[in-house]
């Protein structure tokens, strides 16, 4: 086609444009960050070692395996993932579970700090945020990496014990997305192994494979030429590098190694098509994926093209977003983006979501926006705004680069090893962006689109809910839809820019600070303004590029009658999408180009808040936004009608799934006859009144004197004082003071046991326990309650996941609240084989009995070490000081004092936890629910089962 040829010529023109002498040679290799010590050992292992003091006193350890599910034979389907699990079940240095036991004694928690994942082409293990002051612990972590490389024990009894865990992981993942992949992927990946490997594997293989088959897979693929280790953190990099060379050089290379080939996806001249339906799907979706080989290299030219791609994706997102915001889109969701598909391949995806009867018009509409770009490109205004935003983001990233967490470097190093790209230093990145972004032209981006919209390697996929007597669009209809769009006489995009680009068109008449009080313990100051508003400010430079504001007032929906709740809840969700002041949402996005300032509001059950943040350079813009949340909100009835209509369509499309039935059932039991529980359904949406919604918003935010404003960040007192007087001092203040209303709690009293049958796609039992007890607030007891939850998590992992192999994991949440009432709660849940749910439930009750009389010192020490590690630098963040100030003004509690946390952690004993557990578990109300699949397709049945601990 002519326009495609034109595009290629434009691309050649665009990429030869000079954009600075420093980066003029596009074939030049991207330099590797010289701060990273790297090398390849004689046996083929690659290593990376880097000193990075963020976070202080911590280090992270990674091993990257160029190994994944695509290397499996059919009789090994799932063993790459199975092997990942086995890495935590015994090595030569750490037999059994001793590895995790050792790490957790240092506060390094399994699942949080110690984890792994397997993908189609890679397997990655990590031990993160490990205390680095102890050289013995550093060496222990290096031994773990070494063992993962070559020293897994793979004992038969451990393999057999893990089969159940992986079966339950598969059960937890067997959802609509999983089932769609099974149907679509063989077509999407053109008959290659990518289409039949889903990582977690075939459960027949997982349950029955010979252990020797797993050992053979380990020998064949976990080998030195396919492995890299990375150690980044607050370490002596020279010393650690020497130890890495010494320890890992001793691993022998595998002789006669199997070739690690890349998977080639054959080209397709003819279009391919796949249809997949599922009872749990909400919408219909049409996706056109155009596959391309990834030609990326480690050069300036490829890096430049990456920014062109990012611009294309961002500009398409804004175009489609404007259609939705204007209410003109016939689709419920639409996207056009270029992305990585699998190793060696990328894909341009055109996606349209709609009700099943509107799928073709939706797809035509989305594709028309792509065609508009192919014909006319983007506008100078669009590109200019995109460049400003990208440059502003790059500048912020550069300013913060000195505080980059070690985890970020470890993730970049993974890409460096697996994809062959350099990890460049922050100065290079910033210099490159400053030169390359201005050099990118409209022609570059149009050419990028044109070269990727081709008529080969096209895969059309159609998904949607199961609907009787309904025919989904077929391949010929989709091809015809594209041809129709290409023949349309499309108009160029009109880039409407607000005439008045001023966010606030007038200067507010500010107020004065009348009273000042120093808060020495917080290094903060409180100001009382002439309009009655209270402002609390603390200077903090822990995050140099951040200033945060939060304004809080009590009341919320508790002040409104039941009939107002639909309008109240909708105000909190909709009004933010209307824009602000005289600018609708689209115009607002345009005038905020290049600015870091943000503001939002929240309307809850007991309070309303306004939040904002900005970099120091945009502080005054942030203050204008805060002022406008109160004095210049925007209400748009046309936009409201559009949002409401789309919400109703979305609600009508909601299928009744096993998950939704369980969620609604639990909700109904928990709420009982609570008159203030308003279910979000069609009737709820139709009860929303625009005028009442507007009135409610104004009532919540028309009196700033009922708010306390907290400001924390990198701004000097003199400057923020002036801006506080100008903007916060100008807000309307009536002198009213409100408090929230506490209503009756409808949580079921006493013990309540239910077993409920539910129709579902695949047999799975779900168990839920919820407990709640009122208590008079006591900081020590609250912490003891949390520790009890952490210990239960350890016990359940050991006895229900590992020993029983009964579930992928038991979720435990022991929490406390003070608003609207003081109470402790405990939630426990898991999913499993329906035939085992009663037995596993009994084990839960057994552990709840045990913890009341027996807490192992080892378990308590693990939890305490993790809490101390996690909170060691808690005061070194803006968020901590924002929370501390808010907590102090809310209830007088001082988070900065050691008595708040440290003293309690230092003194707590196993007896304390036992006593706290007894007090809670003996007095709490209990809701115990088991959901099981129904034998026949009947309506949900409910029966009560009596049991107590």
Could you explain the architecture of this structure?
The chain is of the alpha+beta class. A seven-stranded mixed β-sheet has the order 12-13-14-18-15-17-16, sandwiched between helices. A six-stranded mixed β-sheet has the order 1-2-6-3-5-4, sandwiched between helices. The protein has a six-stranded mixed β-sheet with strand order 21-22-20-23-19-24, sandwiched between helices. Strand 16 (598-603) and strand 17 form a beta hairpin. Helix 10 crosses helix 15 (442-452), helix 11 packs parallel to helix 16 (475-486) and helix 25 crosses helix 26.
Précis, in short:
It contains 30 helices and 24 strands. The protein is α+β, with helices and mostly antiparallel strands and 949 residues long.
Give the number of DSSP strands.
24
Largest sheet: 7 strands, mixed
Tell me the radius of gyration.
30 Å
What is the residue-averaged pLDDT?
94
Q: What is the assigned CATH homologous superfamily of the largest domain?
A: Metalloenzyme, LuxS/M16 peptidase-like
For the record, the CATH class of the largest domain is Alpha Beta
The tally of structural domains comes to 4
- Per DSSP, the total helix count is 30
Structural class: alpha+beta
Task: Write out the strand line-up for the largest beta sheet, numbering strands in chain order.
Answer: 12-13-14-18-15-17-16
Distance between the termini: 74 Å
Low-confidence stretches: 1-18, 936-949
CATH architecture identity of the largest domain: 2-Layer Sandwich
Shape: globular
Under CATH, the topology of the largest domain is which?
A: Cytochrome Bc1 Complex, Chain A, domain 1
Question: What portion of the residues fall into strands of 2 or more residues?
Answer: 15-25%
Percentage of residues assigned to helices: 40-55%
């Amino acid at each position: 086609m002519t326009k495609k040829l034109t595009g290629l010529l434009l691309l050649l023109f665009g990429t030869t444009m000079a954009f600075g002498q420093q980066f003029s040679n596009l074939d030049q290799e991207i330099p590797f960050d010289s701060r990273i010590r790297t090398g390849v050992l004689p046996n083929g292992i690659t290593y990376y070692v880097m000193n990075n003091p963020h976070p202080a006193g911590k280090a992270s350890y990674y091993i990257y395996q160029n190994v994944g599910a695509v290397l499996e034979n059919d009789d090994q389907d799932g063993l790459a993932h199975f092997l990942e699990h086995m890495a935590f079940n015994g090595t030569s240095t750490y037999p059994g579970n001793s590895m995790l036991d050792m790490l957790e004694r240092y506060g390094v928690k399994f699942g949080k700090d110690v984890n792994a994942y397997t993908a189609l082409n890679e397997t990655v293990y990590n031990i993160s945020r490990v205390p680095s002051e102890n050289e013995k612990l550093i060496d222990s972590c290096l031994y773990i990496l070494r063992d993962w490389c070559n020293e897994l024990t793979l004992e038969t009894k451990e393999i057999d014990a893990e089969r159940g865990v992986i079966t339950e992981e598969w059960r937890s993942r067997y959802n609509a997305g999983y089932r769609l992949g099974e149907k679509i992927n063989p077509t999407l990946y053109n008959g290659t192994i990518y289409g039949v490997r889903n990582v977690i594997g075939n459960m027949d293989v997982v349950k029955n494979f010979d252990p020797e088959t797993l050992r053979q897979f380990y020998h064949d693929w976990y080998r030195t030429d396919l492995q890299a280790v990375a150690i980044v953190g607050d370490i002596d990099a020279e010393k650690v590098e020497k130890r890495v060379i010494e320890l890992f050089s001793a691993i022998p290379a595998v002789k006669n190694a199997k070739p690690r080939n890349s998977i080639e996806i054959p080209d397709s001249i003819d279009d391919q098509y796949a249809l997949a339906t599922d009872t749990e799907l909400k919408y219909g979706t049409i996706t056109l994926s155009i596959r391309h080989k990834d030609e990326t290299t480690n050069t300036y030219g490829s890096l430049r093209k990456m920014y062109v791609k990012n611009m294309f994706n961002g500009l398409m997102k804004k175009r489609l977003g404007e259609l939705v915001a204007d209410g003109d889109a016939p689709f419920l969701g639409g996207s056009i983006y270029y992305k990585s598909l699998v190793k060696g391949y990328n894909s341009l995806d055109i996606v349209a979501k709609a009700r099943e009867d509107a799928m073709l018009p939706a797809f035509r509409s989305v594709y028309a926006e792509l065609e508009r770009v192919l014909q006319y490109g983007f506008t100078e205004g669009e590109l200019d705004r995109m460049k400003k935003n990208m440059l502003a983001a790059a500048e912020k990233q550069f300013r913060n680069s000195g505080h980059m967490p070690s985890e970020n470097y470890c993730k970049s190093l993974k890409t460096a090893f697996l994809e062959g790209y350099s990890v460049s230093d922050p100065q290079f990145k910033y210099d490159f962006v400053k030169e390359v972004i201005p050099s990118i032209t409209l022609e570059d981006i149009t050419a990028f689109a044109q070269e990727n919209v081709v008529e080969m390697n096209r895969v059309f996929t159609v998904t949607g809910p199961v609907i009787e007597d309904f025919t989904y669009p077929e391949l010929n209809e989709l091809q015809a839809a594209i041809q129709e769009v290409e023949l349309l006489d499309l108009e160029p995009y009109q880039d409407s820019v607000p005439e008045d680009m001023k966010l606030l068109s007038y200067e507010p008449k500010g107020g004065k600070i009348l009273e000042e009080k120093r808060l020495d313990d917080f290094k903060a100051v409180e100001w009382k303004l002439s309009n009655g508003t209270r402002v609390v400010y603390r200077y903090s430079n822990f995050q140099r590029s951040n200033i945060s504001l939060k304004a809080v007032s009590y009341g919320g929906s508790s002040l409104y009658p039941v009939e107002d709740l639909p309008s109240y809840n909708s105000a909190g969700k909709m009004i933010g999408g209307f824009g602000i002041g005289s600018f609708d949402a689209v115009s607002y996005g345009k005038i905020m180009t290049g600015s870091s300032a943000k503001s939002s509001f929240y309307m809850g059950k007991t309070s309303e808040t306004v939040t904002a943040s900005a970099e120091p350079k945009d502080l005054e813009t942030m203050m204008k936004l805060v002022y406008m949340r109160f004095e210049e909100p925007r209400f748009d009835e046309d936009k409201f009608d559009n949002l409401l209509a789309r919400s109703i369509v979305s609600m009508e499309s909601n299928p009744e799934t096993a998950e939704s039935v369980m969620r609604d059932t639990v909700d109904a039991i928990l709420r009982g006859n609570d008159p203030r529980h308003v279910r979000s359904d069609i009737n709820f949406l139709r009860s929303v009144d625009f005028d009442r919604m507007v009135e409610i918003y104004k009532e919540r935010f028309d009196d700033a004197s009922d708010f306390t404003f907290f400001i924390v960040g990198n701004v000097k007192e003199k400057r923020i004082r002036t801006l506080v007087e100008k903007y916060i001092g100008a807000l309307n203040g009536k002198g009213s003071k409100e408090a929230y209303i506490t209503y009756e709690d409808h949580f079921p009293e006493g013990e309540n046991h239910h077993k409920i049958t539910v129709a579902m796609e695949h047999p799975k039992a779900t168990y839920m326990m919820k407990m709640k007890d009122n208590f008079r607030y006591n900081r020590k007891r609250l912490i003891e309650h949390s520790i009890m939850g952490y210990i239960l998590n350890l016990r359940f992992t050991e006895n229900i996941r590992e020993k029983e192999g009964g579930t992928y994991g038991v979720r435990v949440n022991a929490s406390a609240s003070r608003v609207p009432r003081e109470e402790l709660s405990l939630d426990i849940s898991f999913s499993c084989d329906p035939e085992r749910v009663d037995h596993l439930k009994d084990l839960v009750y057994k552990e709840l009995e045990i913890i009341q009389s027996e807490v192992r010192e080892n378990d308590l020490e693990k939890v305490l070490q993790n809490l101390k590690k996690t909170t060691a630098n808690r005061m070194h963040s803006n968020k901590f000081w924002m929370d501390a100030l808010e907590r102090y003004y809310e209830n007088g509690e001082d988070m900065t004092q050691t008595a708040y946390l440290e003293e309690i952690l230092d003194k707590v004993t196993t007896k304390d936890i036992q006593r706290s557990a007894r007090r809670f578990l003996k007095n709490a109300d209990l809701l115990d629910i088991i959901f099981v699949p129904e034998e026949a397709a009947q309506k949900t049945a409910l029966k009560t089962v009596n049991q107590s601990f």
